[in-house]
Each structure stands twice: as structure tokens, then as C-alpha cells.
Amino acid sequence: MALRNSIRVPAAADAIILRQHRAWVSIWFVLALAAFILGLARGLGQRQLVAVVIFGAVVALIIWLWVLAIRGCGQLIIAADAITYVSGTGKTVAALNRQQGDLLRVGGRASVQWGNNRYLAIQGTATCIPLGLYKLREVREACTAKGWHFQ
What we know:
This protein is α+β, with helices and mostly antiparallel strands. Helices cover about 40% and strands about 25% of the residues. The strands form three sheets. It has a four-stranded antiparallel sheet, covered by helices on one side. It has a four-stranded mixed sheet with strand order 9-8-5-10, covered by helices on one side. The chain starts with 15 loop residues before the first strand and ends with a strand.
């Protein structure tokens, strides 16, 4: 697998590919859409043109942002020689190479108030892969299956 900052990094034939959980992103958009669609319906029911235009524009904006957020979800490519995080646009954001070591550590913490700021790194290096929309259990299982070890 080539580890360079390019578009569409090919995964090794035996690599495990984990995709980010889009449902975690979608829940906030669904809640916002529900609120603004209620406002739009009320404006239509009362025949208030200004409310219909404003709420209609906000609903369209939320849908557009939702599509962008889903398309921006990346993937984690876990192979025996490297772990690579690729963004939704196909660009390599971060890569951990086996030559740097094989002892992984998970840093940061999950916070209910501010989201998830966990990351994956090789012990003793500064390169970090964000794990915000991944289930930690799935990442650990995939890494262990490819011969990586955890601290």
C-alpha cells in the first residue's frame, strides 16, 4: 500500500476497511430537520409567505449540509504494514507505519458534552488518527487481527 498524500490510496488486498458510522452524524440533522419542517408546515397552514420562504430555505440548507457531512465520512484502512485514515474525499489524512513500531495506544476520551476526541497513535510518535466516528471495539479487533498490539 502506498502511503502518500494522494487521492484514492489503494488498500492492500488483505486490508480491513472500517467506515465511519454515518448514523452518528445523521441524528443531529434529523432532529434539526424535524424542527424546521414543523415550522415550515405551520407557515404553510397559516399561509405566511415569509415563514415558508425562511423555513424552506433552512430545510434546504440542512439537507445540503447533511449530504456534505455524509460524503465527508472517511474510512480506516488497517493492514499488516500500516494503518491509514482516508477522508471522504479520498485524501490520506494520517498514516501509522509498522516501521515506527507496532505498539498502539488510544488517547483522548469520549465526552458526552463535546463529542468524542479519541485518537489512535503508535507509542512514542506524534502522528494521530482521529477515532471520533468509529467504534473503538471494532478498531481494536481489526488492528489485533492484523498483528498490531495495544498498550
